């Protein structure tokens, strides 16, 4: 009689150890959430999903971009975050501040943020709810999920539809020419960092006099 275990793929001890470590970390994080009066808006409260090409900014970068957005939007300003949830979360941490923000995002886990969440697929750049009026946002912050001209071009249609004028784009340094071509934005001195290092050099681009230079 064949040994029943033979056809069950065995994980290497290395993989098993890594998995156990991962689950342990997750349990600890879940534990922290309950014990610390967990803030649903803190970065990392929703895990990165690499299959959706998600990479969260470091805390410092998200804070810096959120601060810039508030300044650029002005008092009572309207801010749209396209595929930039960690900036949205930072903005929401500033509870009761004088601005309005919404998040356009493909990842439906962000629907936990209620009416401010708008499902967004860059393949359908103008498939937006009717209450998102054209040119109704003082600033649009966007971080297209892929480093491709097609993705940038389609996201650019959404940005141009929503913004009154100001644009803050975060994408790879390799996209500099396309960013200028599709959105008229220039690279800033500020270097955005991610919570995990990315292989591609990442930069910020703006089309107005920002505090990021």
Automatic annotation (TrEMBL):
Major location category of this protein: cytoplasm
Chain segments annotated as coiled-coil in the UniProt record: none
Entry-linked Pfam families: N6-adenineMlase (PF10237)
Keywords: Cytoplasm, Methyltransferase, Transferase
A single BP term in Gene Ontology: methylation
Gene Ontology CC entries for this record: cytoplasm
Annotated localization: Cytoplasm
PANTHER family membership: EEF1A LYSINE METHYLTRANSFERASE 1
Protein name: EFMT1 methyltransferase
Organism, scientific name: Orthonyx spaldingii
